[in-house]
Amino acid sequence: MYFKYQGSVCSDLDDTKVFIQNILNRLKDVVDDENLLFDLKLILNELVINSVIHGNKCKKEKCVYLYLEILEDTIRIEVSDEGRGIDFDISSYNPRELKCCGRGLILVDGLSDELYIDENRVEVIKYIC
Questions:
Q1: Computed over its alpha carbons, how large is the radius of gyration of the chain?
Q2: What is the pTM of this model?
Q3: 31, exposed or middle or buried, with CB in 10 Å at 0-12, 13-18, 19+?
Q4: What are phi and psi of 3, to 5 degrees?
Q5: Per-residue pLDDT in tens (0 to 9) along the chain, 129 residues
Q6: What is the residue-wise DSSP string for the chain?
């Protein structure tokens, strides 16, 4: 299985929804596992929308960049924005505090096999079994 996508979207939530849906429509041509597609949809939504809201502060002149590649049994997703970056330690997240910030990254971490955060760039690796 092979798929590669590289693109960007300006930080407008309506444009972002269309952007993500277009990518998911293209993924349906190569991924026939509905559970995997659901995971990818959630990962993409969380990462791209977080970049729009938290990274770029919904400033339409700033963009979110996406690189997605499926190569054999590995999916690699990289999302970056034009914000200042995040300093988030997943191990310090306490779900009992009921904070709004951080839950998306916890979900992404749970759905992926590897998660790397480097300032304003998040990389996710997911293995296809």
A1: 14
A2: 0.90
A3: middle
A4: -155, 140
A5: 899 999 999 999 999 999 999 999 999 999 999 999 999 999 999 999 999 999 999 999 999 999 999 999 999 999 999 999 887 666 665 555 555 565 788 899 999 999 999 999 999 999 998
A6: -EEEEEEEEES-HHHHHHHHHHHHHHHTTT---HHHHHHHHHHHHHHHHHIIIIISTT-TTSEEEEEEEEETTEEEEEEE-SS------GGG--GGG--STTHHHHHHHHH-SEEEEETTEEEEEEE--
The residues, ordered by sequence, that sit 6+ positions from 5 with a Cβ below 8 Å of its Cβ are 23, 26, 66, 67, 68, 69
